[in-house]
Amino acid sequence: MIKFADLYKYLFLFPKPVVGALNGHTIAGGCMLATACDYRVMVTENAKISLNEITFGASVFAGSVEMLKFCVGQRNAETILFSGAMYSAQEAKQLGLIDRVSSAENLNQDVMTVAEEYARKDGTAYQSIKRLLKKPIATEFIKRERDSIHEFVDIWYTEGTWANLQNIKIHSG
What we know:
The protein is mainly alpha-helical. The protein has helices at residues 2-13, 29-36, 62-72, 74-83, 89-95, 107-119, 123-156, 159-166; strands at 19-22, 26-27, 39-43, 49-50, 100-102. The chain has a single domain (2-103, 123-164), classed as 2-enoyl-CoA Hydratase, Chain A, domain 1. The chain has a three-stranded parallel sheet with strand order 1-3-5, with helices on both faces.
């Protein structure tokens, strides 16, 4: 779990633009990785995005909370985390969880368009601005990350959480 937290911290602070192409369900850890991106494009076709851990009795990491708040603001972060709701691309865009809605057919081109727009920016200026925006947030969550991971693990291995996980049904279609 520490390596996973290191991965999203790396993406969040990566000095170049990171554009996420969300081509299907982006749930739990996938959503955490998506919030680490600078820009997120999501398909409309039956895809959902969610930090749904609360629905089966789990918590989240400090970094995932801070990155979510960076994307959507405090109030929407509370709504997303406390509800555990699964959001369509349109709903996620309204919340600020994604930046652009695309069709599966156009996803690659839409992502490339965004990436090309970023590529036209001055790289040194971009890196500086990104660091100014994101470094203070990462510095704060890094201080709390290990404790939040330990708390996550403690909650994860409770009887209630495991009972909830056993009852999860995966539906296709």
